[in-house]
Design goal:
By secondary structure, the protein is an alpha+beta fold. The chain has 21 helices and 20 strands.
Length: 599
């Protein structure tokens, strides 16, 4: 009997030991059930950092943050709730609410997802008090971008919700997070976005937050994104957009000594505040569907235009470098450049201009002949193909037909056709006259406004440039952005620029731009008229000021504006006057331009 008793006792003890070991594993070693319990009592809330601020070159705020609120949901925590009540407060249909919850469930049953973005303060206050009625839902603080002035939309860009591709490529982001989509917001996303934090809170059975967990021991503070100091002069930008109201085109102004963009205007434009808040999607679609004005299109970086007569400066420089002409070389004009049955017409001026006077009067004949002679130089190049490739290499060096890789995204490179393009077009049988229209900025060549502005900066610097850019400091105004500190030499003889500068000065003093002289400022300029096969020609003007130690170069193009001296030249000269003097004395000219409509 004792033996049987001992056996039974051992069996009972053994079974008890097994249960104790299993309980130990479940309760101590395995935290699965602990996690399940914690998830019912704890909530981890992501602390989204405020994005970095953006200042102009004079420390004025271009972009700052406002408080916003998102309604979040954890699908696995949802219980029965009054859908009609919630839909009414969110101003959405029940079907839309269910679709959003299903999307959240697909992303993750356990992680929070956004149900309603950027709620009003009134809705936030209501939901915060009534969250016990909506188990599984909670409100999370956010920040929204705000723009104190409705300017510089294309430069600043906007933020939007991340897509599936970004979620898969970058673990920093979760569904419902925001990311820079365009402009500075996109180019400097890494710097602006900051570092996320987290807050672990206790939640009661009524879905109400009861306080921090463990007195915040597991909390992590978010870190605000770095602030940026831009190169933009906010007052100049605002003035440029005012001058371009009811016009289609762009202005690009650069400080030539640094490559810093002082203003970059693309019109028609839009108020950047339209792409903020809960109405962002609706407003974006409205802007996208405005096919007459196309306000989302950044003409300064993406539009490609025939450069017109401003391109004569580049061809004159190349002709000097190649030894085809000297500043005193004269070509007979006779009213146009003749090519058998076809003539490139020229306007009235003295018959034998040299390079300087050819620039001042914008002589078509002079630059057609110079360009033809560049491509026909058989002492140096055996074929038209070799000569054209050499010319194209020069043009690419001057920034045309290539991208700068500036800090504004979506830049296009323009069009400078290849040798292969013309070989195919002319069946390998072509000469300088076949492409002579590019000598005066017409034909197949197409450039962007920022490329043209940069070329004028090369002239102002007599042969070099810094890549045009819009951010001068990151994190601290005294911490320079060194990404664009490299001085790029274009390889041209410095002395060749003297003739271009003198020609541009004469254009303002007695040539095609004499009507836009600025009292007290020595400005250099060049008018242009870019042919437009779809309507009235485009008005183009470039300028440098002052002549000695230039502080600003400007390119202006107004679509369908006609002659360069009519619209673009007054706008560029007013921009120059405002930047250098901070006031405008030519009030009649300013009034005429502001009231002008060419849409």
């Amino acid at each position: 009997m004792d033996k049987q008793y001992r056996i039974i006792t051992f069996i009972i003890l053994g079974i008890t030991l097994v249960f104790l070991i299993q309980l130990f594993k479940l309760q101590v070693l395995n935290d699965t059930y602990k996690k399940k319990a914690d998830e019912n009592a704890l909530r981890e809330i992501t602390e989204h950092p405020a994005r970095g601020l953006v200042y102009d070159r004079n420390d004025s705020l271009l972009v700052y943050n406002d408080a916003a609120y998102d309604l979040m949901v954890v699908p696995n925590e949802i219980r029965d709730f009054d859908t009609a009540d919630l839909c009414k407060k969110l101003d959405i249909s029940k079907e839309e609410l269910m679709n959003r919850i299903e999307k959240a469930r697909y992303y993750s049953k356990m992680k929070p997802s956004i149900v309603a973005q950027q709620m009003s303060k009134a809705n936030y206050g209501y939901l915060q008090e009534k969250l016990y009625k909506f188990p599984g839902f909670f409100v999370q603080n956010r920040t929204l971008r705000h723009y104190p002035k409705p300017i510089a939309a294309h430069i600043l860009g906007y933020v939007g919700e991340v897509d599936q591709k970004i979620l898969e490529e970058d673990q920093y982001y979760q569904m419902g997070d925001y990311i820079g989509i365009s402009g500075i917001e996109k180019a400097y996303e890494q710097e602006l976005r900051g570092t996320k934090g987290k807050r672990v809170v206790l939640v009661d059975v009524h879905n109400r937050v009861m306080g921090s967990y463990k007195n915040g021991e597991e909390d992590e503070n978010s870190i605000q994104g770095l602030s940026l100091w831009s190169t933009i002069d906010m007052q100049l930008q605002e003035y440029g957009e005012k001058l371009m109201e009811n016009k289609r085109g762009s202005i690009v102004a650069i400080e030539p000594a640094t490559g810093e963009i002082l203003c970059i205007v693309s019109t028609p434009t839009y108020d950047p505040n339209l792409l903020v808040g809960s109405a962002r999607s609706k407003n974006y679609n409205a802007l996208l569907q405005d096919t007459k004005r196309v306000p989302l299109f950044d003409r300064a970086l993406q539009a490609m235009y025939p450069p017109g007569s401003t391109f004569k400066l580049a061809n004159g420089l190349i002709a000097l470098q190649e030894g085809i002409i000297t500043p005193k070389t004269q070509y007979a004009c006779g009213g146009g450049y003749n090519m058998g049955s076809h003539t490139v017409k020229c306007h009235a001026h003295p018959n034998f201009p040299d390079l300087i006077y050819g620039i001042a009067t914008s002589c078509n004949t002079y630059f057609c002949r110079a360009y033809y002679n560049i491509l026909s130089n058989r002492k140096k190049y055996k074929t038209i193909q070799e000569a054209y490739q050499a010319w194209k290499d020069y043009i690419n060096t001057l920034g045309f037909g290539v991208k700068f890789d500036t800090d504004l995204p979506y830049e296009t490179k323009g069009i400078i056709p290849s040798v292969e393009f013309f070989n195919k077009r002319y069946n390998n049988s072509w000469n300088g006259n076949s492409v002579v229209s590019m000598g005066i900025g017409q034909g197949e060549a197409a450039v962007t406004p920022i490329q043209m502005a940069n070329f004028v900066a090369i002239i102002a610097n007599r042969g070099y440039y810094f890549k045009p850019h819009v951010i001068r400091a990151i994190g601290n105004k005294d911490t320079p952005n060194d990404r664009y500190a490299e001085k790029i030499d274009c390889g041209f003889d410095k002395n060749h620029f003297d003739a271009l500068i003198e020609g541009m000065e004469q254009a303002v003093l007695q040539g095609t731009a004499r009507s836009v002289q600025i009292p007290g400022i020595k400005m250099l300029g060049k008018t242009g008229t870019a042919q437009n096969p779809h309507g009235k020609d485009h008005s183009v003007f470039v300028c440098i000021a002052p002549k000695e130690e230039p502080k600003i170069v400007v390119f202006c193009l107004v679509e369908n504006g006609g002659f360069g001296a009519t619209v673009a030249a007054p706008i560029a000269s007013l921009i120059t006057e405002f930047y250098l003097n901070r006031e405008i004395k030519r009030n009649d000219l300013e009034k005429r331009i502001i009231e002008m409509s060419i849409l």
